[in-house]
């Protein structure tokens, strides 16, 4: 999010006052991650919340939400279930995705917000492997740690970007931006073996099914996660490191968030403890 920090400082001994609450409701927020594996696609619309507000922003209702490619329109219908306020649903788009550029249009209160995303292929996952982490095997920690590795053949031509999510027993473990793994193929070999997550044995039981989902993303979304991670989860301190920059977005008219259409491949591996 975009936060403006207004600091009132009289001397180094004085209290720093942060006026951050006036951002509430200012920004139109769009969450639109479309893929080719989910039966029901959803887009969430909301208003930005205060910096100090722990809940999500106020849902936006009565919008017209459409995704278009080549004259074919896919309308997203507002959910009227209280627990899904602000969600707009489509159950047919996933089966009709074709490689190319898609346009998102959101109309609300006489304003039109737009974005584009290119739907690109993604490699098949060859395998998922589990290794003992270096810090544990070297005796640098007493916590038994495992590296979860993904293996795939990189696409030809360069310019590919990927996002990897981890599931344990089909439950998503990487919901926060800092927990996700984003990969640029700039420095990758033709065949990729990449450690995407380190997990403690305390969080696993023999027989658990580990799943990795590899999805295609744009360069802009790759940069979105990089900036989001360094400004929020990595630092946790608005005064640490370099001055904050605006989080990237591909939405028009001052809206924030992101629109992404992705191909997804996945693979699973049964967990068995190693070296006991």
Summarize the structure.
The protein has about 280 residues and is mainly beta. The chain has helices spanning about 135, 220-235, and strands spanning about 5-10, 15-20, 30-35, 40-45, 65-70, 70-80, 85-90, 100-110, 110-120, 125-130, 145-155, 160-170, 170, 180-185, 190-200, 210-215, 255-260, 265-270.
* Coarse structural class: mainly beta
Please provide the count of β strands: 18
| Shape designation | globular
Strand content: 35-45%
List the helices and strands and how they pair.
Elements: E1 7-8, E2 17-18, E3 28-35, E4 41-47, E5 64-69, E6 72-78, E7 87-90, E8 100-108, E9 111-119, E10 125-132, H1 134-137, E11 145-153, E12 161-168, E13 171-172, E14 181-184, E15 191-200, E16 209-217, H2 219-233, E17 256-262, E18 264-270
Parallel strand pairs: 3-17
Antiparallel strand pairs: 1-2, 3-4, 4-7, 5-6, 5-8, 6-7, 8-9, 10-11, 11-15, 12-13, 12-14, 12-16, 16-18
Walk me through what this model shows.
The protein is mainly beta and 276 residues long. The chain folds into two domains: 7-119, Sandwich (Immunoglobulin-like), CATH 2.60.40; 125-270. 7% of the residues lie in helices and 43% in strands. The chain is built from two helices and 18 strands. It has helices spanning 134-137, 219-233; strands at residues 7-8, 17-18, 28-35, 41-47, 64-69, 72-78, 87-90, 100-108, 111-119, 125-132, 145-153, 161-168, 171-172, 181-184, 191-200, 209-217, 256-262, 264-270. The chain has an eight-stranded mixed sheet, with no helix packed on it. Strands 12, 13, 14, 16 and 18 form a five-stranded antiparallel sheet that branches. A three-stranded antiparallel sheet has the order 10-11-15.
